[in-house]
C-alpha cells in the first residue's frame, strides 16, 4: 500500500479510508475467484482420486482375468521335487501315478584341446543339430577361439545355441550347448580345411580327459524323457509334457524310483479365494466412489440442519460409471455355461451398492458348477472383461477423466491470470485514491493556512481600530 502522513491538513485517517475503498472494490471479485479456485482444486483432487481408484480396480481385474485364477480344477503333485503340473482346458478330475525313469536332455559338446593363444586359418564351421542345419560360421584368418565363440553366440542365439570356452591346465576347449532336448538332437560341427581341430561329432564321446584328441559329446548323448502313467510306458522329447493327460500339463523335474501321485480335483478353495478377491476389489472401488459423492448432514450454531456434499456429489460422470458397473454385474455372461449370473454363485448387491458373498450358497454352487466359473468370469464375454471394458472410456490415456483434469487445470490457470489482473488493478486504484486524498489533504492545509492568515490580519485591523 502507498503511504501518507495521515490528515496533516484535514486530520482525516487517509490510510483507513483508502484501505476501505480498495477492500470494497476488490472483495466481490476476490470472493468470486477464491470460490471458483476452491471448487476447481477440490474437484481436481477428487477426479484424480477417482481415476486412481478406477485404475486400481482395473489392475485387480487384469490380475484375475486369467484362466488359472478361476480354473474349476486344480492339479496337485504329491512330490513337487519330482513332478509339477497345471490344469488347462478339457481336464477332468482323476488321480494318476507317474514315475520318471529318465529326463530328456539337451546336447552339450566340446572340441578337442586347443593350445592357448592359437589362431586359426580362414574357413567355415557348419553346425547341425540332429538332421537339421543350424548355420555356417565364417572364420576369418588369424581368428582366435574367443572370436569364433562370439560369432556362434551372435549368429545362433535365436536357435537356443550358446558357446563358451572352458580352460584347464592342459588347454582350452570350445563348448557348445543347446536348449533343445530329446533324442537325436546332438550338435555336430563340420570344419573346413585348416580348422579340423574344431570339428565335433555330437554322437561320439570326446577324447580322454588327458588327451582330448577329438571333439564329441560331454557326459552323454541326448535322450528322450521316459516315464510311465499308471504303468503305461511313455516318452517325450521335452520334460514339459502336454497332451499325455487331457487338459493337464506337467513337468518332469527329476527321475526317481518312486512314483509321484498327480491329483486333479475341484478347485474349491482357489475359486472361493478368487471370487472373494473380485468382490473385495469391487467393494473397495464402491467405497472410494461413495467417499467422493457422499452428503454429510450436520447442525449449525443456530441449531438448523445443514447438508454438505462431497466434491463429486451428483456428478454425472460418476453416475454413469456406477451404472455401467452395475449393468455389467446384473448382465449375463456368455461363456459361463450353466452359470450366467453372479447371483448363482451366492453373490448379491447390498443397499449401499457393495457386494456380499453368501458362503453357503457359494460352496453349493461350486460343488455343482465349478467347471463353469472360469468362463463366467474370464475371457472375451466374461464378467471381468465386460466390467473393465466399461471403464476404458474414462481411464484410458486422454479419456474422459484426463480431459476433465485438463479442463480443471485450464480453469485454475485462468483464475491465476484473473488474480494477477485483479491485483494489478487494485494496486493502481489504491495509488490513485491515495494521490487524490493526499491532494485533498494538501488543499485543506493550504486553506487552513490562508484562513489563519486572514483571521490574523482581521484581528490586527480590529485591534488598531479599537486603539484609535
Compact overview of the structure:
By secondary structure, the protein is α+β, with helices and mostly antiparallel strands. It has helices at 14-64, 145-156, 268-293, 316-330, 359-377, 383-395, 400-467, and strands spanning 73-77, 83-87, 94-102, 106-110, 119-120, 123-129, 132-139, 143-144, 161-167, 172-181, 187-191, 200-205, 215-217, 225-229, 232-236, 240-245, 248-252, 260-266, 295-299, 305-309, 347-349, 355-357.
For the record, give the distance between the C-alpha atoms at the N and C termini, rounded to a whole number.
Answer: 58 Å
Strand content: 25-35%
How many helical stretches?
Answer: 7
Give the C-alpha Rg.
44 Å
Topology, number of strands: 22
Secondary-structure class: alpha+beta
Shape: elongated
Residue share in helices? 40-55%
Low-confidence stretches: 1-5
The helix/strand order is HEEEEEEEEHEEEEEEEEEEHEEHEEHHH
Strand order of the largest sheet: 1-18-3-14-15
The largest sheet is:
5 strands, antiparallel
Q: What is the average of the pLDDT values?
A: 89
Describe this entry's structure for a reader.
- Pfam families: Flagellin_IN, FliD_C, FliD_N.
- The chain is an alpha+beta fold.
- Among the domains are: 73-103 and 224-266, no CATH class; 106-217, no CATH class.
- Helix content is 44%, strand content 25%.
- The chain has helices spanning 14-64, 145-156, 268-293, 316-330, 359-377, 383-395, 400-467, and strands at 73-77, 83-87, 94-102, 106-110, 119-120, 123-129, 132-139, 143-144, 161-167, 172-181, 187-191, 200-205, 215-217, 225-229, 232-236, 240-245, 248-252, 260-266, 295-299, 305-309, 347-349, 355-357.
- A 5-stranded antiparallel β-sheet has the order 1-18-3-14-15. A 5-stranded mixed β-sheet has the order 9-10-4-13-12. A 3-stranded antiparallel β-sheet has the order 2-17-16, with no helix packed on it.
- The longest helix has 68 residues, at 400-467.
- The radius of gyration is 44 Å and the shape is elongated.
Amino acid at each position: 500500500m502507498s503511504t501518507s502522513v495521515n490528515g496533516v491538513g484535514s486530520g482525516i485517517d487517509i490510510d483507513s479510508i483508502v484501505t476501505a475503498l480498495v477492500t470494497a472494490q476488490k472483495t466481490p471479485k476476490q470472493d468470486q475467484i477464491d470460490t471458483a479456485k476452491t471448487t476447481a482444486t477440490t474437484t481436481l483432487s477428487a477426479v484424480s482420486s477417482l481415476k486412481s481408484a478406477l485404475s486400481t480396480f482395473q489392475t485387480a481385474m487384469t490380475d484375475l482375468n486369467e484362466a488359472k485364477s478361476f480354473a474349476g480344477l486344480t492339479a496337485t503333485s504329491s512330490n513337487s521335487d519330482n513332478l509339477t503340473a497345471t490344469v488347462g482346458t478339457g481336464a477332468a478330475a482323476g488321480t494318476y501315478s507317474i514315475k520318471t525313469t529318465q529326463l530328456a536332455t539337451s546336447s552339450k559338446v566340446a572340441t578337442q584341446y586347443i593350445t592357448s593363444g592359437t589362431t586359426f586359418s580362414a574357413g567355415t564351421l557348419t553346425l547341425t543339430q540332429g538332421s537339421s542345419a543350424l548355420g555356417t560360421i565364417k572364420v576369418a584368418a588369424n581368428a582366435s577361439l574367443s572370436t569364433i565363440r562370439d560369432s556362434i553366440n551372435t549368429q545362433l542365439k535365436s536357435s537356443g545355441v550358446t558357446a563358451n570356452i572352458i580352460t584347464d591346465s592342459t588347454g582350452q576347449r570350445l563348448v557348445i550347448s543347446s536348449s533343445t532336448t530329446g533324442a537325436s538332437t546332438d550338435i555336430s560341427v563340420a570344419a573346413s580345411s585348416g580348422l579340423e581341430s574344431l570339428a565335433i561329432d555330437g554322437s561320439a564321446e570326446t577324447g580322454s580327459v588327458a588327451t582330448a584328441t577329438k571333439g564329441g559329446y560331454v557326459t552323454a548323448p541326448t535322450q528322450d524323457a521316459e516315464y510311465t502313467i499308471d504303468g503305461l510306458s511313455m516318452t517325450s522329447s521335452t520334460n514339459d509334457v502336454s497332451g499325455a493327460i487331457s487338459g493337464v500339463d506337467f513337468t518332469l523335474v527329476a527321475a526317481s524310483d518312486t512314483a509321484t501321485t498327480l491329483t486333479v480335483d475341484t478347485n474349491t478353495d482357489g475359486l472361493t479365494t478368487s471370487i472373494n478377491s473380485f468382490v473385495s476389489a469391487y467393494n473397495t472401488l464402491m467405497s472410494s466412489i461413495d467417499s467422493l459423492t457422499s452428503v454429510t448432514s450436520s447442525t449449525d450454531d443456530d441449531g438448523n440442519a445443514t447438508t454438505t456434499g462431497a466434491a463429486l456429489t451428483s456428478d454425472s460422470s460418476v453416475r454413469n460409471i456406477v451404472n455401467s458397473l452395475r449393468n455389467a454385474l446384473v448382465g449375463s455372461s456368455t461363456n459361463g455355461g450353466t452359470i450366467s449370473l453372479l447371483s448363482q454363485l451366492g453373490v448379491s448387491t447390498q443397499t449401499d451398492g457393495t457386494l456380499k458373498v453368501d458362503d453357503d450358497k457359494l460352496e453349493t454352487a461350486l460343488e455343482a458348477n465349478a467347471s463353469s466359473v472360469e468362463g463366467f468370469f474370464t475371457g472375451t464375454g466374461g464378467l471381468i472383461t465386460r466390467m473393465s471394458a466399461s471403464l476404458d472410456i474414462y481411464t484410458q490415456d486422454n479419456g474422459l477423466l484426463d480431459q476433465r483434469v485438463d479442463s480443471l487445470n485450464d480453469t485454475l490457470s485462468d483464475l491465476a491470470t484473473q488474480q494477477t489482473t485483479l491485483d494489478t488493478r487494485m494496486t493502481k486504484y489504491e495509488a490513485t485514491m491515495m494521490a487524490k486524498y493526499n491532494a485533498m489533504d494538501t488543499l485543506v492545509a493550504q486553506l487552513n493556512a490562508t484562513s489563519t492568515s486572514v483571521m490574523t490580519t482581521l484581528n490586527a485591523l480590529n485591534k488598531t481600530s479599537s486603539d484609535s
